[in-house]
């Protein structure tokens, strides 16, 4: 199976690394998974016989630009690569933009038009125009998968749609952002105030330099929109979500909650058609009370009743894990 | 898709009920799922145009025998039905026998020979001769699924093999038996001794009349054999499991464990090639510390790292949920 990786930041490199490390396993169990092009904003490396993934990672880390890949690197746009390089699947992993969805949206639509299946981790287009993407994928008869867009390595979208196939998902509640969970856990365990806990999360590389989207709940909001649309058949955008972040949570509030047998978590929830993100009291012994950067989701379903899943919500290899499972699904659905 | 239900106890009736309740959903999203035969030890009801599932349940509940289904009921063996009734899939849900695997083993092998896919909840043959079943299914080019055999509605086998596809599963630990979890939870919360808690579980219908297989850990042992073989590619049988039950756990032991921040759970685990079932200390804040009749499994994987899933391990509708997801998978893999 021939793959184009569009976007070569931490996640793109994670995908390349995983495809390299799993090359023998993939060849033995399925077929060779070749990366025939990698793009970033500088240009692309293209080799129809398959790129040397270790070299691609090295060039990117040393020079910051994939166009410097020896001989096969050049200045060419991602769109031109999607149009002109022969491949089965495009892995779209450029940074998420929750306002415009670009450039991911254009990359995805262009891939569909060129009869290429798409796997993405990108929340932007999914939170802004999910229906349009689904319709277009259908129109061009290609597969569109995005397990990695919510909860990183934590199985959630494919779990609900496939492992729990036949169940109606009645509600979803969960912690879908590792940064805020880390901050709240630190505040609870060590009595730190919000700013100090945030500073520490930044120093450890858990919080981004600009953590606004995380702490204000927008990242969680984007994720519950994706879940509402993809799992529960709704047609929502990020504007439909009532959002409240964690900035005003104090260590005193956590202490008082603890005394009553509760903790406070930033919960995203979809229930009775409403999408809400807000700090909520969670019983100490609830399965939703997971610590550190972990993510958790609780489904309420008609047949299986409650199902809870816990996993790592971020990290390049963890995210690549979800992308790999989508790639294997596409292989199985189209080639075996 | 045409289905034969072999075995019409609680689970078989649960499958019939779910297929009845979901008939419109299935027709709309896939195609009509018709039950063309139902068998029990008395005989069978057969209708190639599809049985009236509500009537079948009613007849079974009133008379105890499916052969009494009006007009279409007759004395005929399950084997003859498997051989002679035209259908796509056999749902094998006779009672599990962990010593011989029969009659399920014969039913399953006979289905394969007659080019029928099989979905089962039956632990017996899976724990005793997994490889043989897999080889036979392969030989006859049919699909063999058994999500319901471990953890009821809790996604576990398909979760590991499909949602986490591409991951190597390094170890599995979990609570896979709801009866023992209920007993230990009761003993911990109310200070009851083992016998009293067991008696209560029996009165509530949570424990079976003969709960030996549950409390001695054999049920959990069968389940970890199934997981070792189906998820981790091993070739084990129930004789390879080191098993210790919960009979000797005292409320004092639970009290002391609690005082140190632990609880005691009957844990099944597969690690470094060893299969072990025994009561273990589990930290109070571990995700494995789930209460009541809940089941839980923790996978350690190479890419996604730790993934935990919690769900209902038993109940006819919950088990039927897992069977339905397998039926939908077979439909999608063979008919769409």
Automatic annotation (TrEMBL), chains A, B:
InterPro entries in the record: Asp/hSer_DH_NAD-bd, HDH_cat, HDH_CS, HDH_short, NAD(P)-bd_dom_sf
Residues reported to bind NADP(+): 7-12
Enzyme class at the top of the EC tree: oxidoreductase
Annotated L-homoserine binding sites: 208
Name the UniProt record assigns to this protein: Homoserine dehydrogenase
Gene Ontology MF annotations: homoserine dehydrogenase activity; NADP binding
All residue ranges annotated as the Homoserine dehydrogenase catalytic domain in the record: 155-328
Annotated binding of NADPH, by residue: 123
Pfam families from the UniProt entry: Homoserine_dh (PF00742), NAD_binding_3 (PF03447)
Domain Aspartate/homoserine dehydrogenase NAD-binding as annotated: residue spans: 7-146
Keywords: Amino-acid biosynthesis, Methionine biosynthesis, NADP, Oxidoreductase, Threonine biosynthesis
Positions of the catalytic residues: 223
Pathway: Amino-acid biosynthesis; L-methionine biosynthesis via de novo pathway; L-homoserine from L-aspartate: step 3/3; Amino-acid biosynthesis; L-threonine biosynthesis; L-threonine from L-aspartate: step 3/5
SUPFAM superfamilies membership: Glyceraldehyde-3-phosphate dehydrogenase-like, C-terminal domain, NAD(P)-binding Rossmann-fold domains
Keyword tRNA processing: no
This enzyme's EC code(s): 1.1.1.3
Biological process per Gene Ontology, one example term: threonine biosynthetic process
Family, similarity comment: Belongs to the homoserine dehydrogenase family.
């Amino acid at each position: 199976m021939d793959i184009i990786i569009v976007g070569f930041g931490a996640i793109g490199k994670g995908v390349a690394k995983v495809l390299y490390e799993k090359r023998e396993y993939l060849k033995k169990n399925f077929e060779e998974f070749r990366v025939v092009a990698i793009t970033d904003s500088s240009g692309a490396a293209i080799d129809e016989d398959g790129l040397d993934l270790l070299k691609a990672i090295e060039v990117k880390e040393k020079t910051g630009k994939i166009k410097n890949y020896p001989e096969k690197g050049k200045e060419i746009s991602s769109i031109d690569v999607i149009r002109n390089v022969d491949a089965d699947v495009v892995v779209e992993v450029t940074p998420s933009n929750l306002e415009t969805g670009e450039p991911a949206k254009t990359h995805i639509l262009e891939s569909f038009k060129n009869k290429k299946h798409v796997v993405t981790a990108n929340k932007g287009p999914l939170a802004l125009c999910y229906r349009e993407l689904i319709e277009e994928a259908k129109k061009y008869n290609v597969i569109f998968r995005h397990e990695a867009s919510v909860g990183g390595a934590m199985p959630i979208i494919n779990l609900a749609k496939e492992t729990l196939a036949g169940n109606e998902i009645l509600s979803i509640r969960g912690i879908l952002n590792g940064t805020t969970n880390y901050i709240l856990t630190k505040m609870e365990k060590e009595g730190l105030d919000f700013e100090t806990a945030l500073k520490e999360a930044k120093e450890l590389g858990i919080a981004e330099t600009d953590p606004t989207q995380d702490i204000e709940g927008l990242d969680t909001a984007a994720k519950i929109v994706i879940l509402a649309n993809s799992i529960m058949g709704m047609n929502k955008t990020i504007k439909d979500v009532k959002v409240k972040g964690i900035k005003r949570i104090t260590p005193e509030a956590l202490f008082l909650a603890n005394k009553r047998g509760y903790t406070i978590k930033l919960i995203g929830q979809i229930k009775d058609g409403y999408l809400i993100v807000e700090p909520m009291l969670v019983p100490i012994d609830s399965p939703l009370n997971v610590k550190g950067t972990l993510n958790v989701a609780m489904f309420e379903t008609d047949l299986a009743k409650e199902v809870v899943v816990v996993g790592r919500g971020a990290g390049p290899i963890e995210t690549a894990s979800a992308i790999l499972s989508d790639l294997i699904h596409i292989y199985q659905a189209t080639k075996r």
